[in-house]
Structure formats: structure tokens, C-alpha cells
Amino acid sequence: QVQLVESGGGLVQAGGSLRLSCAASGIILTFSAMGWYRQAPGKERELVAIITRGGNTNYADSVKGRFAISRDNAKNTVSLQMNSLKPEDTAVYYCKGSDYYNNQAYWGQGTQVTVSS
Q1: What's the mean pLDDT when you consider all of the chain?
Q2: 110: which of 32, 50, 92, 117 fits an S-S bond (Cβ 3.0–4.6 Å)?
Q3: Which tens digit of pLDDT belongs to each residue from 83-117?
């Protein structure tokens, strides 16, 4: 069984920073793409940032220039550095990893990020 566990969420004032981390445990998998998604109350889950195994990245327009995604393939971890946070960044943030061989998706349980104005 594979588990993705997020950490680093919390409450921060607008303009502040947080760093989210996600680590895989259980059966050792090779992940192709890994990413961060978020879901605000009453809204659908949306992509925040994604990174391929080779390090190519893609960001939602709303976070470009403020967020940075990174990963450590050897440790099966992915991180999200969030700077210049805004109240509209408030959401539950989820980590996702896709199995390299069969593309099965694995999700973390989510971590709450709250940005106060």
C-alpha cells in the first residue's frame, strides 16, 4: 500500500510564506508526475503546480511567480514553496503522485492552508 502524507499547512497572514511537503511511504513506487492541487470551500479541486520526473514544471496562472514546486526522486518527496500568499490561496492542499508504469494516481489526505487578510 502506498501513502502520501502532506505536512506544513497552517495559518499565515497575507504576504507570508509557507512550505508544504509530501512524502510517500509504504510500497516503494516510481512516480512520474507529482503535483499539488487545492480545493477551496464550495469549489472544485484545481491544479496548483506539477513537476515531471525530469524536473519540468507547470503552474496555475494564479500562482505563477509566487509558488515553486520541487521534488527529490530518490526520497519520493515533493514540496511546494508558497510566497506572497493571498487570502484567495486559502484551501485544502493535496499532494498527488502518478505511478510511472501504470499511471495510477495516489493522493494524500490534504493539509489546510489558511491565509488571513
Answers
A1: 95
A2: 92
A3: 999 999 999 999 999 998 888 999 999 999 999 99
Which residue, among 90, 85, 93, 87, has the nearest Cα to 111 in the 3D structure?
Answer: 93
Sequence letter at residue 33: A
Indicate left, alpha or beta for 88 from its phi (over 0: left) and psi (-120 to 50: alpha). Answer: alpha
Within the chain, what is the greatest distance between any pair of CA atoms? 44
Chain-centre distance for alpha carbon 98: 13
Cell numbers standing for residue 29: 513506487
Of residues 63, 66, 89, 71, the one with CA closest to residue 11: 89
Q: Give mean pLDDT, residues 25-40.
A: 89
Q: How far is CA 23 from the centre of its chain?
A: 11
What residue has cell string 495516489?
Answer: 106
Count other C-beta atoms under 10 Å from residue 35's C-beta: 24
